[in-house]
Amino acid sequence: MKKNLQIFLISFLLVGLSETIINQVFLKPSYDSLASLWRSKDELGAYAPIFLGIYLVFASSFSYIFYLFRDNMDSIKGLKLGLALGFLSRFWYAYTNFIVLPISFGLALGWFVFGLIELGVIGLACGYFAERQNLRNRETIRG
Fold first, then answer.
1. pTM of the model
2. Which residue of 11, 61, 95, 132 is most buried, as measured by CB atoms within 10 A?
3. Total domains present in the chain
């Protein structure tokens, strides 16, 4: 239970941090060029607390999927899990929105690539944490 909570916290913090960096730094020029498409800054600010709920749902779901594959979890398996989830979710998201919204291909590609990297890093970090925990547990048992 404790490890699951820690995986939840790691994924929650990393998704919040990475979403902020991706959207406020890397993709900001694309968003600025499409300013008429998005909500105003004031309106977006009013909705900003909803992001916490989105991150909670993400972290809960990611932690549950991670839990299902927890046996012998290590950094590489975590990375593969994150990349698989990233490819599945971000490819669909980016290119569905490219079809539906009047956005550039570059923005759709950015959503996909940065999202894939984001989930890969989250999976890698959680896998590394689980791997370290598993090693500590084995050392304690050998004691």
1. 0.93
2. 11
3. 1
Tell me the one-letter amino acid at 102.
Answer: P
Structural domain including 61 reads 2-142
DSSP letter, residue 101? S
pLDDT tens digits along 16-33: 999 999 999 999 999 999
Query: Which CB contacts under 8 angstroms, 24+ apart, belong to 24-29?
Result: 26/110, 26/114, 27/107, 27/110, 27/111, 27/114
Percent of the chain with pLDDT over 90: 87
H/E/C letters for each residue in 32-83? HHCHHHCCCHHHHHHHCCHHHHHHHHHHHHHHHHHHHCCCCCCHHHHHHHHH
Termini Cα distance of the chain: 23
